[in-house]
Each structure stands twice: as C-alpha cells, then as structure tokens.
Design brief:
This protein has 208 residues and is of the alpha/beta class. The protein contains seven helices and nine strands; from the N terminus they run H-E-H-E-H-E-H-E-H-H-E-H-E-E-E-E. It has helices at residues 9-14, 35-43, 57-65, 85-94, 108-111, 115-131, 150-156, and strands at 23-30, 48-52, 75-79, 101-105, 135-142, 159-168, 171-181, 191-195, 199-201. Strands 3-2-4-5-1-6-7-8-9 form a nine-stranded mixed β-sheet, with helices on both faces. Strand 2 (48-52), helix 3 (57-65) and strand 3 form a beta-alpha-beta unit. Helix 4 (85-94) runs parallel beside helix 6 (115-131). The termini are far apart. GO terms for molecular function: ATP binding. InterPro entries: DUF7125 (IPR055549), P-loop_NTPase (IPR027417). Keywords: ATP-binding, Nucleotide-binding.
Length: 208
C-alpha cells in the first residue's frame, strides 16, 4: 500500500514509509510540550485544512509562517470556537480534498459535546477521510481531567502518537511512543527525538 509522508523522516521510516491513506491519528501531548512543532511539520507535506478550536486563526497562521518547512499557501486555517464548533469542523471535513491533511487543534472542545453527537462526528470524519484517502490529525492535549469522550477518540483512531517529555539533569528528553497502529506494526521502542527548529533523531546515548 502507498503511504503518505508525515514530514518527519524518522517517523516515516518506523511506519514503513508513512501513514496509510484514510488514517485518523491522535497526537497526545502535554500542554507545555513542543507538540505544535509536530503539527506544523504535518502541515508542510501536502494541502492542509487546519481547524483551530482554541487559538485564533491569526495566531495559528503566524506560527505556521515561522516554520521554514511549511508552504503557507498550502494551508487554510479555519476557526471553530463557539458552541457550534463541532458543526463548523464537520463542514470542513465534508469538503476535504483527496490525499490532503486535516488537523483539528485541539480536539477537546469537540470531545466535550454529548457522547452521541461526538460519536456521529467521529464516524463521519472517518468515512470522509477514507473516501478521500486523506489523513486526519487530532491534537489531544492531556490534562488532569480529560473529557469523557477521549476514550472514544482513541478507540476510533487508527494510530495514536504519544509525545512525552521529561527533565533529566540539565536536559529535556522527548520520546514519541506509538501504542496503537491499526493494521500496522507498532515500533518496539519509543523514538528519542530532538525538538528544535525541526523534529530530528536524538542520537545521544541513554545513561542509567
């Protein structure tokens, strides 16, 4: 099967070339992490529809413009901030182009709708992504009180990327775990990454 690149070469390698077309991916990360770097990198690969449910469109566009890896003309940013956020996002989903990328940043406001409404949204999202052979990235920020529908988000997703950061001495370590890959092979070990201006492999050795 042909794969769609993520824009992160090390991740593409462990995923046997990238993401299968039609995949819905959950990116889990702490609010204080560098997950925005991943999101911006995903934008740089192909035409992208970016739905922001928290930040303003101006803030998102400025962040994307600062990323050298992104052709800003290929990214369209949509706002979905109010009580109609899930309907606004669904409208973007319905117009998703073939082999494009959809980013929802972040998914929490949608998860806080009632369970049946959210289940229908996720089901329609998956159907459209499959039909368009596209990719959807749902940015799921961890908190002490995740929405009840977070379980459904992860259950329905084809892949889960779990970004974790920790301080060790004077360094900050970043590791990406792939605990779920429906129809694919899960990497045996976490990916140790360096998050600077881009996402690269951290080649430093672990010292116990």
């Amino acid at each position: 099967m042909d794969r769609l690149a993520t824009g992160i070469p090390v991740l593409d390698r462990v995923l046997d070339g990238g993401l299968p077309p039609g995949s819905v991916v959950v990116l889990k990360a702490d609010a204080a992490s560098q997950s925005e770097l991943f999101i911006n990198t995903f934008c740089g690969v192909r035409e992208t529809q970016y739905v922001t449910t928290v930040r303003s469109t101006t803030t998102v566009e400025r962040g994307i413009e600062r990323s050298d890896a992104v052709d800003t003309e290929s990214v369209t940013v949509h706002a979905a901030h109010d009580e109609e956020a899930i309907e606004r996002t669904a409208a973007v989903v319905s117009e998703l182009d073939t082999e494009s990328t959809l980013i929802v940043d972040s998914v929490e406001p949608l998860e806080r709708t009632d369970a049946e409404t959210y289940r229908r949204f996720i089901d329609d999202l998956m159907t459209r992504v499959i039909d368009a052979e596209a990719i959807a990235i749902l940015h799921a920020v961890r908190s002490e009180h995740d929405p009840e529908n977070r379980v459904l988000t992860e259950q329905m997703a084809d892949l889960v990327f779990d970004l974790r950061s920790r301080v060790t001495g004077t360094d900050v370590e970043h590791r990406l775990i792939v605990p779920k890959f429906r129809g694919g092979v899960i990497p045996e070990k976490p990916l140790k990454l360096k998050l600077g201006e881009s996402v690269t492999v951290d080649t430093s050795r672990d010292i116990a």
